[in-house]
Amino acid sequence: MVDLNPIVDRIKTDQSPNQLTYRVQIGEKKYTVKVTNNGALAKDQPLEALQQTITKLLRDLGSQDGYFEQISGRTLTAKIKDKKVENINIQGLSKKERESEKWQSIIKTTQDVFNRYFPLPVRANQPSPSLEESKEEVMDDIKPVESAGFGKNIPHFTNSCYIAAAVQILRSFPTAIQALNSPLKKEAQELREDFIKRKNIQKTLKKFIHSIDSGIRDNARKDGEEFREALFADPSFEGEGRHAQLDSQDVMRVVLTAINCHVKTQGSYSFRYKRSTVSELRAPATHQSVRVTLQQKEGGVNFNQLLKDEYLPTEAIKKTKTAPFKSNRKTNRDGTPYTPERYYEKTHIVGDPPKFLPIQLTRMVHGADGRATKVNTEVTFDDFSDLSFLFKRNEEDARYSVNAFTVHAGQDPKGEGGHFITYRRNDEGQWHEYDDTKRDVPTVTDTDIKEIMKQAYTVILKKVEKDPKPAVVSIEVDEEQKE
User: Fold this and answer.
1) Distances (CA, A) of 361 to 142, 375, 379
2) Of 67, 64, 86, 65, whose CA–CA distance to 77 is shortest?
3) In the beta sheet, which residues pair with residue 291?
4) To 5 degrees, how large is the angle CA 109–CA 114–CA 116?
5) Are 140 and 199 in contact (CB under 8 A)?
6) Which of these, 414, 418, 409, 406, lies nearest to 366 by C-alpha position?
7) How far is CA 177 from CA 127, 260, 414, 441, in A?
8) Rounded Cα gap, residues 458 and 291, in angstroms
9) Which whole-number Å values give the CA distances from 193 to 48, 133, 199, 419, in the listed order?
10) 3-state secondary structure of 71
């Protein structure tokens, strides 16, 4: 009886996730196993996680009596689609051999084992990591919250609509909820008292959401007040008093900062001279969302065009006295400053298109006297927005649709008399209105939602996923000869 406790070791030091080589030892026999895939399997996966999964897979296959001995010298290919193995093909088998009881058993065994390990869980778009390594990681004792929470309204407490609107829209932003449920990390240069403030925001928000879902309105009000106190303890929160009417975007900014949920962007300059073009990248920057400032415009503006005007290369300066950065050539031959004829600037989002993208439409314009005025320009959204121009590699797969948005009724989001309301779309595509002055959560028709959306204030976009590319995994097995 052969000892079916295979030893699996990697025998190559290459770091390509698309081709990994292993040695599998079963008893006295040794096999060289090459595992290759078409790239879909390893997308968004750390190499170490992929290696560990394949090691477990090979160990499981090797524990099946005679498995590697029977497929030695052949290449086995598995096609994985829609979270299951769709097809198993073994090279060199005739139709008659494939239909035999022996090979049907091997194919079924392979399919069962593959289904235990693949496809790998897709790693969600994580917030940008801190530039400094974390020195402390703390997990609270409150159970994780869910991102859905459809049909649960937030009870009103004194001047709380800005908090209610922000919490509702965050629940339609699964990336933020994942960060909220993750252990909070203390930055290397962060003061402990600042870390405790961030931790308190995370903890009180989770507690508040659980109270909302429980349906006990008195508990939700109490926990909502605790969450507000945690917000006001943050020095960056623009509050003048615990009962002041504030901005839902301030709440969102402070929460996303506290839980380290960021969008990373990078700007670039391009200077065109008579005979050459000089380009330079800015240092990457982190933001809580993609921010766009609106201007008063009759007739409104299309959302896609608004982003293009903000982020695509635009001619910012026609004539400048000196270049804004140090160029290789500082002066002309006659000693006069060497100035560009054209200056372009572009900003893009670093990384692949995330599944969810937060947008903040800034509707506040400050005049010369310092007073703020609300911009009521209407913004129209297409059913699907192609945002490929926002990404450095001009990704083809970057279509988005609106998943949730907040509107503000009134003239000043930070003034008296205004009110915030959030609208969210559930998994079936039905829109709901979340107004903390109402107990129920009414549905809203698609026709009405398009009109309401024109005054959108904060928006959560959801990526429109294409049919997933099947992962194709090949295992080539060769028995090593004894010396």
Assistant:
1) 33, 10, 10
2) 86
3) 360
4) 105
5) yes
6) 414
7) 11, 11, 26, 22
8) 9
9) 35, 18, 10, 33
10) helix
Report d(CA 286, CA 213) in Å as an integer. 32
Q: What type of residue is 453?
A: M
DSSP 370-439: S-EEE----EE--SSEE-GGGBTT--S--EEEEEEEEEEESS-TTSTT-EEEEEEE-TTS-EEEE-TT-S
The three-state secondary structure class of 194 is helix
If 0-12 CB within 10 Å is exposed, 13-18 middle and 19+ buried, where does residue 270 land? middle
Coil/strand/helix, residue 460 = strand
pLDDT digits (tens, 9 = 90+) for 45-82: 667 777 778 888 888 888 888 888 888 888 888 887 76
Q: Using CA atoms, how far apart are residues 269 and 276, in angstroms rounded to an integer?
A: 14
How many Å apart are CA 79 and CA 458, to the nearest integer?
41
pLDDT tens-digit readout, 85-138: 778 888 888 888 888 988 888 888 888 888 887 765 444 344 433 333 334 455
**Pairing relationship of beta strands 399-409 and 419-425 according to DSSP bridges:** antiparallel
Q: Strand (E) positions, 27-92?
A: 29-37, 75-81, 84-90
157 vs 294: CA distance, rounded Å = 31
Cα separation of 140 and 199, whole Å? 9
**Residue 287, both tokens:** 């933001």
Residue 278: alpha-carbon gap to chain centroid: 33
Q: What is the largest CA-CA distance in the chain?
A: 91
The DSSP symbol for 269 reads E
Query: CB 228: neighbour CB atoms within 10 A?
Result: 24
CA distances from 101 to 49, 98, 149, 477 (A): 35, 8, 51, 21
What single DSSP character describes residue 43?
T
Short-list 230, 228, 208, CA closest to 220:
208
For the segment 325-340, what is each residue's pLDDT rounded down to a tens digit? 444 455 556 666 555 5
How far is Cα 463 from Cα 402, in angstroms, rounded to an integer?
9
In terms of Cα–Cα distance, which of 110, 119, 83, 173 is closest to 360?
Answer: 173
User: Strand pairing partners for 408?
Assistant: 420
Q: What is the DSSP letter of 314?
A: E
pTM: 0.65
pLDDT tens for residues 38-50?
766 655 566 777 7
In terms of phi and psi (left: phi > 0; alpha: psi -120 to 50; beta: otherwise), the region of 131 is alpha
Task: Compute the distance between CA of residue 24 and CA of residue 68 in angstroms, rounded to an integer.
Answer: 9
Structure tokens at 55: 């090691």
The answer to whether the CB of 261 falls within 8 A of the CB of 175 is yes
